[in-house]
Amino acid sequence: MGKYFGTDGIRGRVGDRPITPDFVLKLGWAAGKALAAEGNTRVLIGKDTRVSGYMLESALEAGFSAAGVDVVFLGPMPTPAVAYLTRTFRAAAGIVISASHNPYYDNGIKFFSDSGHKLSESLESQIEAFLDQELDCVSSEQLGRASRIGDAAGRYIEFCKSAFPSELSLSKLKVVVDCAHGATYHIAPNVLRELGANVIEIGCEPNGLNINAGCGATDLKALQEKVRVEKAAIGIALDGDGDRLMIVDADGVVIDGDEIVYALVRQSIKDGTLEGGVVGTVMSNMGMELALAKLNVPFIRAKVGDRYVMEALREQRWSIGGESSGHIINLKYHSTGDGIIAAIQFLSAMVREGCSARDMLSGMRKFPQSLINVRFTPGTDPLASDNVKSAVAEVERALAGEGRVLLRKSGTEPLIRVMVEGRDAGTVKAYAQQIASEVSAID
Fold it and tell me: Of 263, 280, 269, nearest to 347 (Cα)?
């Protein structure tokens, strides 16, 4: 990670640096200078539904224009849609104004390259170098211009539908879709309806302030209740920018990212389309790893963050990977994680197999995990504490190879994430609390 760029672009609370109008204007200028140095002079900008998106969009436009780079606005658009449209319009880069699953008062800026992948660390470094320089402006005749793509949503809907087998239909399924009042509100329901599903939609009335509030992939209670009330076959939850997917079955039981990846791999084996193995993260459930081993599917773990899952997939030349939080990547269909496309793949497998959502997980049993987030004082390093190390070693000895302990720092907040995994839920919860108490004692 650089001075400003984290694992998923630049993110923070609106009004606090770096998410201020002046900084974002300069960020647009710096990115424009870095891209223009390579002869590229057009970028696409999409956003989610946060009220601050209007302000940040205008600031970026001014910065890019001052650097001599044209801007094409997409309006509210999921993150993976921006990646796709950046490729199809042969733009130099795609920019997404979004803080993903965070509350409305946060926002962020993330970039895609012309190939639809996350921006390289070398180009991020170039942008950061320009941020330390004094802002200037090209001459008037060289200023960047602004335009808008009116049918961006329609183009992306067709792209999503192309991931669904043409010989199948969702006509026999009632599906509840929760769009988190986010960027997929005008896309995901239409995709599913056009594929034949009986769609019940919730979380599709954004007002700029309600994104991810009690809905979407990070809060499934409303979806679980709606699925039960409507007697739907399945519930689909996306996050604010549409790159995460969580599913609930007909009984309202949660199916997380690890289980979704397993189901897609299992179907790919039946179809004869699996390429290589699977990439998870250090947080991926041990139950998925063991289930994949029974299928003779190689599995490796990357650091947390879809950027690292993607890097490992490209290095291994594999196609499927994901995180338990719901980032699902399948490079056979898209260059980045895409919640809608992952949902379509899961639904198509259900239809092809004629089975329920829960039946898709046959052969996998998750290990209980206990995850505790412990806030720490910036400037301290609880992971270096001898007391914390001793607590971890004690729990690992007790687990005796029948589970895992993982401590890691959040990439966006001053939090230590304490995770313990094992065969018994009560035991792992007690162990996690034991370690978390040692972490919280550090000041």
Answer: 263
Contact present, 183 and 78 (Cβ < 8 Å) = yes
pLDDT tens-place string over residues 139-160: 999 999 999 999 999 999 999 9
Kindly give, in sequence order, each residue whose CB lies less than 8 Å from that of residue 372, ignoring residues fewer than 6 positions away. Answer: 417, 418, 419, 432, 433, 436
Would you place residue 5 in the very low, low, confident or very high pLDDT band (cuts 50, 70, 90)?
confident
Q: What is the largest CA-CA distance in the chain?
A: 70
Distances (CA, A) of 262 to 96, 160, 322, 329, 353: 29, 21, 10, 12, 15
The torsion of the CA quartet 23, 105, 52, 178, rounded to 10 degrees, works out to 130
**How many CB atoms sit inside 10 A of residue 355's CB?**
12
**Residue 1 binned pLDDT confidence (cut-offs 50, 70, 90):** low
% of the chain with per-residue pLDDT over 70: 99
Given the residues 52, 65, 100, 348, select the one marked as catalytic. Answer: 100
Q: Mark whether 100 is an active-site residue.
A: yes
* Cβ 283 vs Cβ 419: under 8 Å: yes
| Radius of gyration for the alpha carbons in the chain, expressed in angstroms and rounded | 22
pTM, entire model:
0.90
Q: Structure tokens of 42?
A: 């057009």
